Amino acid sequence: RDMRAGSPMEDSAAARAEGRSMCAIARRSARVLAEQMRGSRFRAEFTEQDFGREDKNGLRAGDVALEGRIDRADRWTDGDAVRIVDFKLGGKKIDLAAMYHGLQLQLPVYLGAAMRRWNTRSAGMYYFPLSEGIVNTQSTDADTVEAERNHDLRMQGVLPRDEELMQAQTPEPAHVFQARFSKDGRLYANELCADE
Fold first, then answer.
1. Are 159 and 124 in contact (CB under 8 A)?
2. SS3 content of the chain, % helix, strand, coil (to 5)
3. How would you write 64-122 as a 3-class SS string?
4. pLDDT one-digit tens code per residue, 11-53
């Protein structure tokens, strides 16, 4: 059922354009996510999973039970790690200062809930940008434009320093993550990464 039924936006040109835009974003995102998972030893464990109120092992901040809904949690199929992927319109970036001061806690809380649920270690926490893939380029070559789109749709976040975990996530980390890697696939020292 159309959520706009009976509203002033029900059959407007703007509503139709927004619908086309959302469909384009969904198609592009699904295609890029499938490509990013190719060769990965991680698999989506769940999507849109609630945690908190009913969870007896849930996270707490003092007397307050933390609750939320995790967009996607992926588990290492032959290891003991989990990663969190949160889908964002508008390309939200991780801000370590905001995290430190308690102003950007969504991903750390989600990761903590998933790690606690499976008693496992972190393989990172990431934002995936939801976008139609419109790029600013002078190129008219279809392959070049597609490569630029995919480059802009890489996940951004805090990666694991552990090289085995990185290789388990993808055989081509520079194509999946917004980070700088050496030719042999190692993260540069100044990239956002964590030991646990």
1. yes
2. 35, 25, 40
3. EECCEEEEEEEEECCCCEEEEEEEEECCCCCCHHHHHCCCCCHHHHHHHHHHHHHCCEE
4. 778 887 888 888 888 888 888 889 999 999 999 999 998 888 7
User: Which residue has 């307050």 as its token pair?
Assistant: 64
Per the confidence metrics, is the pTM higher than 0.90?
no
CA atoms within 13 A on the CB side of 21: 10
Name every residue whose Cβ is closer than 8 Å to that of residue 166 and which is 6 or more positions away in sequence: 159, 160, 173, 185, 187
Instruction: State the amino acid at position 22 in one-letter form.
Output: M
C-alpha R_g of the chain: 19
Asked if 74 contacts 60 with a C-beta cutoff of 8 angstroms, the reply is no
